[in-house]
Amino acid sequence: MTAVSELRTPFTELLGIEHPVVQGGMMWVGRAELAAAVSEAGGLGIVTALTQPTPADLAAEIARTRKLTDKPFGVNLTILPSISPPPYDEYRRAIVDSGVTIVETAGASPEPYMDFFHEHGVRVIHKCTSVRHARKAERVGVAAVSIDGFECAGHPGEDDIPGLVLVPAAADALSIPFIASGGFADGRGLAAALVLGADGVNMGTRFLCSEESPVAEEVKRRIVAATELDTNLIFRPLRNTARVAKNSVSDEVVRILDGGGTFADVQGLVAGSRGRRVFEDGDLEAGIWGVGLVQGIIRDVPPAGEIVTRVVREARVVLDAALRRFSA
Hints:
Keywords: Flavoprotein, FMN, Monooxygenase, Oxidoreductase
Number of strands: 10
CATH topology of the largest domain: TIM Barrel
Order of helices and strands: HEHEHEHEHEHEHEHEHHEEHHHH
Shape: globular
Structural class: alpha/beta
Distance between the termini: 36 Å
GO molecular function, one term: nitronate monooxygenase activity
Organism: Frankia nepalensis
CATH superfamily of the largest domain: Aldolase class I
InterPro entries: Aldolase_TIM, NMO
Protein name: Nitronate monooxygenase
Helix content: 40-55%
């Protein structure tokens, strides 16, 4: 892997990283090896807190990451409504007691936790799917925002606004650094995001399909073979839209809900334990699993660090070529 010169933006300056490329927190995926590889290459790797079964396990995973890199990395903490919620307070305590100073929050508003994070010197990056939510996150004191366009894997919100509009709209509305998420996998995307006003990119599916990603090789091969047409939007009638891989399970979920079914009618199909089997066992029909439209332009499974340096190098080439093309 050949090093590339730093690509600095307000986001990299804020976090002390070399390149404005973030490996988003992904359930069952954001583990030490992947996060460390991204950070070691100059990006920002993210360990996913709730992938770890207990706060003590999270502390151990953070320690493992530190053994693999001495560069900055963050921890994702996704806060969602649940019948039996995880012990979020204990996970937050494990994060700060481990000395982590960068946290990516998602799901519910981070407002109830901002005093705690500020008290411990933690800079919060909050994931949003709309400008209005990004502006609220700025008001409650987050250091940066990651704004997800409709193209993203997982939950794109209910507004259906793609990045080409959402990113410049966020640039017009925010005064804090922000990164663009959803639809990014190469240097063309990073260059476009920067031109549209973002300070970097967050990539999930691209890093899901990397050597260090702790998922079955069958999943990675499917991403490489798939096109941008091979996803489903599930839970649309429930106003809780999620973008997942197209397979027999997600097809059935769409059919049931479009036919007037309720969440209870699909609950067994969408259980998280089934999705975990996809990643661990490579059974692509075992359950639902998140993947973005960007799989249509992913064609290999390189090391995560190579992804970072390749994206930055390509972005420089694209920006230089555009300048030459349109200069007088």
